[in-house]
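job 3f2a | input accepted
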Amino acid sequence: MNNEIQRYTPSERSNHWAVAILFILAGLSGLALFHPALFWLSSLFGGGPWTRILHPFLGLAMFALFLIMAIRFAGHNRLNANDRQWLGQMGDVLNNREERLPEVGRYNAGQKLLFWVLVLCMLVLLASGVVIWRQYFGHVFGIELIRLAALAHAVAAFVLVTSIIVHIYAAIWIKGSVGAMLYGKVSRAWARKHHPGWYKDVERQRK
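job 3f2a | predicted structure (207 res):
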């Protein structure tokens, strides 16, 4: 156990997995409403009417819990000079030549960019979702704005889903990342290799 250090607290992990579950539910219900060829997915939610009712509430719950997570991690995701250098050495990143890269803190530049893309997508989804939520706001907005919001909602959802696929792939690609979010701990060797700046900060706080 002395060889392990905590990367995520139980609260942070619970928050992450709650957002992940809501993302899946909101995504599936959204796809059911997006195109007739995908309408069969509505059977997962009790049919078309229930899917239409549940989707915006699932989206609101996802946004609320994501907001908590974003506030928690925003400070760790500020881009700095090392991050710009890291992005400029993408060849070394893709070929796992981590010894050539600048020192990485709790998150690398790729993770930070993904974080801000997710924040932007969530904000667009929330704003556009309110506009196209006809049951409560159909009388507030004009049809042109509703059409524009529907397009923005679809584009933001596509970018969000694509980003999450990248997020999952990267978590699997870097062995130990999934375990960190499942169990909260990583080995010291993992931390030194992938996030040496963060590892040094953790060790300094222990002394």
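job 3f2a | The longest helix spans residues 143-173.
job 3f2a | closed
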